[in-house]
Design a protein that fits this description.
Blueprint: E1 44-47, E2 50-53, E3 60-65, E4 68-73, E5 90-93, E6 115-116, E7 122-123, H1 125-128, E8 140-142, E9 147-149, E10 165-166, E11 172-173, E12 186-187, E13 192-193, E14 196-200, H2 220-227, E15 233-237, E16 248-250, E17 255-260, E18 267-268, E19 276-278, E20 283-292, E21 300-303, E22 306-315, E23 322-325, E24 328-332, E25 335-337, E26 344-347, E27 350-354, E28 357-359, E29 371-374, E30 378-382, E31 385-389, E32 399-402, E33 407-410, E34 413-416, E35 423-424, E36 429-431, E37 434-435, E38 446-447, E39 456-458, E40 463-466, E41 476-477, E42 499-500
Parallel strand pairs: 14-15, 15-17, 16-19, 17-20, 18-20, 19-21, 20-22, 21-23, 22-24, 22-25, 23-26, 24-27, 25-28, 26-29, 27-30, 28-31, 29-32, 30-33, 31-34, 32-35, 33-36, 34-37, 37-38
Antiparallel strand pairs: 1-2, 3-4, 4-5, 6-7, 8-9, 10-11, 12-13, 39-40, 41-42
């Protein structure tokens, strides 16, 4: 809101003079409020911020501080003691603030009474009657503080677009979790929540579905196709006891989120094809899904696109769990487990792995075991467990690099079939991790040459959650922007420099 600016010469609110004008501009006459002599008419000077006859006196003294005016009238012949002062002084207070300086103004200094109302009183937003006069930037009255804010937990106010979420500081911020969006899906690339929703129920009539809640599609691919090339869409899938068996192909350039609707399991099993294929320039967000079983095809194939996997399990594929070429791939709170041809294969592009398990992938004939990088592919691993993967001789069981880009491991657990074959990646940077390979050197790195099954809950069945009194305790160091929760959603110590357990899941 712009501030209304009054003229330099104004009526003295404590005086009732015939020289004052109704407009508030008294044109420099006697008793007009002034800043210097130039504000006063000829023959008058500015004394005590009032226009006063030059050389003359006044029986009235007025003190003006900021925009709060205190008028004291001295009448020697009066016996009035209206102020309770036996000297005969009568004190009359003017307004606290001036509305012509704007609703938000410097006259009101109390943090819980920052607004000037039409009566010249400093008030909070509740007494002001709301925040309409404050403007669109802070349209919501926070009753607990008395201050107008962009939003509250109960009123999103100014939030929307790429800042749809109200933070604990009552500011609008980008979404960072699918659960923050009423649609159930966040576009992590833009920070906006998806708004268009298409519904899928495997038990629905496959002939009459239109994607609405009352007539959902019966296959995920039907909803992806119906989304078309326009507005981004979330495909909301009801859990089902039977698996979806139709391949999901996301065409170039589309933005699609595929998320589970409610509790239960959404399983995708496509025997002879890659279950999920993401093509050039597309953005795909997968949440709470399981991709399992099938032939030598990949669980997820990404080509020059962007993919986010959150709470996704890809397991028991004959092919690679994830095969990404030229992709930006983010894997969070997910598990890539028991895929015969290997866990994650990345050529070019960038892969980020947080709070995730890459365990028991590959075999003694596999070219890829845990993670394989080539053609300049970058990798960042934080708070993750890479364990018990296997590859053929000459390949790294946990991590294998051929002309890779920047590679870093932090707060991680890394164990291969043996320490000697665990890592083949000369340029990797490692910090605050527990590893088997002697070649992995760095700040805070703890070497354990052999994996002890007793450190984990049930490693024989793929459960590599760690126990409390193990070598992984107090090795990790939490840094700003690290995940605040672990694989199971339990909170991590989230102060910069706080120690924690390494790996995907901290014991509780």
């Amino acid at each position: 809101m712009g501030l209304a600016v009054a003229g330099a010469c104004r009526d003295n609110p404590s005086q009732d003079t015939s020289a004052s004008s109704d407009s508030g501009d008294c044109e420099g006459t006697e008793n007009c409020v002034c800043d210097d002599d130039s504000d006063c008419a000829p023959g008058l000077v500015c004394a005590s911020r009032l226009c006063t006859p030059e050389g003359g006196g006044s029986t009235s003294s007025t003190s003006v501080v900021d925009s709060t005016t205190t008028s004291t009238t001295i009448d020697p012949g009066s016996t009035s003691e209206s102020s309770g002062d036996s000297t005969g002084h009568s004190e009359t207070m003017g307004p606290e603030c001036r509305i012509d300086q704007g609703v938000v103004n410097g006259d009101c200094m109390d943090v819980d009474r920052p607004y000037c109302n039409p009566d010249g009183e400093c008030v909070g937003c509740v007494e002001l009657g709301g925040c309409e006069a404050v403007g669109d930037v802070s349209p919501v009255c926070n009753a607990s503080t008395g201050v107008c804010v962009p939003c509250t937990a109960d009123d999103l106010g100014a939030c929307g677009g790429t800042t749809p979420v109200c933070s604990s500081m009552n500011t609008c911020v980008a979404c960072s979790d699918h659960e923050e969006c009423t649609s159930g899906a966040c576009n992590f690339a833009t920070g906006a929540c998806f708004t268009r929703t298409l519904h899928v129920d495997h038990a629905a009539d496959c002939q009459s579905g239109d994607g609405s809640m009352v007539a959902p599609f019966c296959e995920i691919q039907d909803a992806v196709t119906a989304a078309g090339d326009g507005e981004p869409a979330v495909v909301s899938v009801k859990p089902s006891p039977s698996a979806f068996t139709k391949q999901i192909q996301v065409s170039a350039g589309r933005s699609i989120a595929i998320v589970r609707d409610g509790n239960g399991t959404v399983t995708l099993t496509v025997p002879d094809l890659d279950p999920v294929v993401v093509n050039d320039g597309a953005e795909v967000f997968l949440y709470n899904l399981r991709i399992t079983g099938g032939s030598l095809s990949k669980g997820l194939l990404c080509i020059n696109a962007a993919v986010w996997l959150d709470r996704v399990q890809i397991d028991k594929r004959e092919g690679h769990g994830v095969d990404a070429s030229g992709c930006s791939t983010t894997i969070r709170r997910s598990k890539i487990y028991d895929n015969n041809a290997g866990g994650v294969k990345a050529s070019d592009g960038e892969t980020i792995i947080e709070n995730s398990y890459i365990v028991q992938n590959g075999n003694s004939f596999a070219d890829v075991a845990g993670i394989s990088l080539s053609n300049g592919a970058d990798l960042e691993v934080v708070f993750s467990t890479i364990a018990d993967n296997d590859a053929k001789n000459g390949k790294g069981d946990s991590l294998d690099c051929v002309s890779a880009g920047a590679v870093s491991l932090r707060n991680a657990i890394v164990f291969g079939t043996t320490a000697a074959t665990s890592v083949n990646c000369p340029a990797v940077t490692v910090k605050d991790s527990v590893v088997d390979a002697a070649s992995l050197m760095g700040s805070g790195v703890v070497h354990q040459p052999d994996l002890d099954p007793a450190w984990f809950i049930a490693p024989a069945s793929g459960n590599f959650a760690i126990k409390t009194e193990t070598p992984f305790k107090d090795v990790a160091v939490w840094r700003v922007d690290d995940p605040r929760i672990d694989y199971d959603g339990d909170p991590r110590p989230s102060e910069d420099g706080a120690t924690d357990y390494t790996g995907a899941d901290r014991p509780i």
